Task: structure prediction
Amino acid sequence: MKLRLGTALGLSTDQIRRLTSAELPLPHEPQCLTLDTFAAIADWYHYAILELTRVEGFQSNVAWIAQRLGITRTEANIAIERLFKLQLLKETSYGQWIDTSENGELTHLTPSQTSEAARAYQCQLLELSKKTVQEIPLSKRNHTSAAFCFDPEDLPQAIERITEFRRAFAREFKPRTSKEVFQIQISFFPLTKMKG
Result:
């Protein structure tokens, strides 16, 4: 009912989501995809399409999505079909596409699992990050790093803190009116050849 009323009033998808979720607390954990489900949507633009549904002026249109993300119409069309098939994207009775994942938060990561699809996904993000360093002005992005000594025994705690920060950061800035889709990527890795 709130979705129908919100759409009739001309509210954005994000405004409708805030209304419909105002009574419910944010979940503490994002929806965790199985490795098989993630493998089906492992290309970076699947997540970006879901986020794009929250952007001001979103159009439920393959050509518009392809143009906004800089992908081909074929890539956009196949990704949209997959997202519908996996019920991560849904069409309302008014023809508007919406993200149906829990609170708009998905993950494929678990503390003990990875997959070839997850590795390929991270490599795609690194390539996109590299491209933005070369093409996007510094005023519209942030690429910084720090090298420091670290005890590998503290790695589980460090990974937990990074995860908490990333999720808190995304939640803090999500409620604002969205105009673009951004990617936050934090890399934490050894520079020295680890013993053992």
Remarks:
- The helical segments are 2-8, 13-21, 35-40, 44-52, 62-69, 73-85, 116-135, 155-173.
